[in-house]
Amino acid sequence: MLDLKKYTENDYTLYSQLVFNEQTMNMNLGRVFTDDEAASFFQMVLRCNIAKPDLGFYKVFAKQGKDIQYIGMGALNWNDDYNAIEIEYMLLPQYWNQGHGTELVKLLLQMANKARRELDVVAITDPKNIYSKRLLQRVGFTLVKQYVNDDGDLAELYIKRTEHASK
Questions:
Q1: Taking CA 39 as the corner, what is the angle to CA 43 and CA 91, rounded to the nearest 5 degrees?
Q2: Quick one: angle between helices 35-51 and 12-19, nearest 10?
Q3: CA dihedral in degrees (32, 42, 95, 101; nearest 10)?
Q4: Residue 85: partners with Cβ closer than 8 Å, 6 or more residues away
Q5: C-alpha span between 151 and 124 (Å, rounded)
Q6: How far apart are CA 51 and CA 33, in angstroms?
Q7: Are strands 121-125 and 84-91 parallel, antiparallel or unpaired?
Q8: Which residues have CB under 8 Å from 34's CB, separation 6+?
Q9: pTM of the predicted model over 0.85
């Protein structure tokens, strides 16, 4: 069972476990953040969490036996390009292939539906990230297009249509 809590200013140590983890960041960005990028992005996370109560960036915890472990990040963001909520997620490698990703995406979808029921939900992934592509398809996302992002890298846009938005 997963528990999500918004990041606060006291959570940089947890956050840094993700953004300086080579395996995690290679799957998401193709490289780890620099110190400056990590600090800047964390400040944006905090601003977003304050400005948008129904969206934001969440610490993800999983119960492991009697312990509760920090396993990664989940996020709900507004994507202006697609007029939709975008979900994002990153897990630490030691928690991959255990069902946590699927559970996290389903939880984020429930939260997105509660926040803005009438809108579609999008996810953007690297075409080489086979695990993420399979996960998104398994929970009902459809590949819409492959494109070159602002960094010059290939990306894939997945969408999950809501009943209301497709009418």
A1: 90
A2: 130
A3: -110
A4: 55, 76, 77, 78, 79, 112, 115, 116, 119, 120, 121, 122
A5: 14
A6: 24
A7: parallel
A8: none
A9: yes
- pLDDT by residue for the chain (167 residues), tens only, comes to 899 999 999 999 999 999 999 999 888 877 889 999 999 999 999 999 999 888 999 999 998 788 999 999 999 999 999 999 999 999 999 999 999 999 999 999 999 988 877 789 999 998 988 899 999 999 999 999 999 988 888 999 999 986 554 44
User: How many residues are recorded in the chain?
Assistant: 167
| Residue in this structure with the two tokens 């300086």, named with its chain if needed | 20
Rounded distance between C-alpha atoms, residue 123 and residue 25, angstroms: 17
Instruction: Extract the tokens encoding 39.
Output: 């600090």
Please compute Rg for the chain using Cα positions: 15
Phi, psi torsion values for 163, nearest 5 degrees:
-60, -45
